[in-house]
Write a structure and sequence with these properties.
single chain; alpha+beta; Heat Shock Protein 90; 2 domains; 5-stranded antiparallel beta sheet; two-stranded antiparallel ribbon; 3 helices; globular; Anti-sigma-factor_SerPK
C-alpha cells in the first residue's frame, strides 16, 4: 500500500448527509483494502455517523457544510476528522437515563479508546473546529493480485492509490 492516502468530502449540513458521509468513508476504506465487514470498518462507520450527526445537529445552522477527511499514514494510523464552521466545541453532557441525545461524544470516546486510539478537538483557522480520531491501522490480509498484475508489480486503484499485490509465502 502507499505511504500516504487521503480522501475528503464536503457535504451540506443536512440530516441526509449523515448517511452520505458513512457511505463515502466505507467506500474509501474499501478502496484502501479494508473489507466492509471488518470490525474496524464497523467502528469507523459508527464514529463517522456520530461526528456527522453532531456537525448537522449542533451547529444551529451556522455551518452550512461539514467536511469529512480520512488519512492513512504508512499502513499504521488512520485519521478521521469532521470539520464544521461553528466555533463551539462539543460539551460533555450528563447522560440522564431519560435523555434522548447527548451521548455521541461518549460513544466516540469509548470506541476510540477501545481501539487504542486518540480523540482530539481543535479549532480551525477559519473559526470552526475539527473533531478527529486517530486509530491504529492493521493492514488487512492482501487479496489476490488483480487480473493482469504479477508479483512484484503494483496496480493503481481507481482513486489513484497503489494496490500492493499479494506476495505468496516462500
Amino acid at each position: 500500500m502507499a505511504d500516504h492516502l487521503e480522501a475528503s468530502v464536503t457535504l451540506p449540513s443536512d440530516p441526509a448527509s449523515v448517511a452520505a458521509a458513512r457511505t463515502y468513508v466505507v467506500g474509501a476504506l474499501a478502496e484502501w483494502g479494508l473489507p466492509g465487514d471488518a470490525d474496524l470498518t464497523d467502528t469507523v462507520r459508527l464514529i463517522v455517523s456520530e461526528l456527522a450527526t453532531n456537525a448537522v445537529q449542533h451547529t444551529f445552522g451556522q455551518s452550512p457544510t461539514f467536511t469529512v477527511d480520512l488519512v492513512l499514514d504508512r499502513d499504521e494510523r488512520l485519521r478521521l476528522g469532521v470539520t464544521d464552521s461553528h466555533p463551539r466545541f462539543p460539551k460533555r453532557l450528563p447522560a440522564a437515563v431519560q435523555q434522548d441525545n447527548g451521548r455521541g461524544m461518549v460513544i466516540i470516546r469509548w470506541l476510540t479508546a477501545e481501539c487504542g486510539g486518540k480523540l482530539r478537538v481543535r479549532p480551525t483557522r477559519e473559526g470552526g473546529k475539527t473533531v478527529s480520531i486517530e486509530l491504529p491501522w492493521t493492514p488487512p490480509p492482501g487479496p489476490a493480485a488483480p487480473a493482469g498484475v504479477t508479483a512484484g508489480q503494483n496496480a493503481v486503484t481507481p482513486a489513484g492509490g497503489l494496490l500492493d499485490p499479494a506476495v505468496p509465502d516462500a
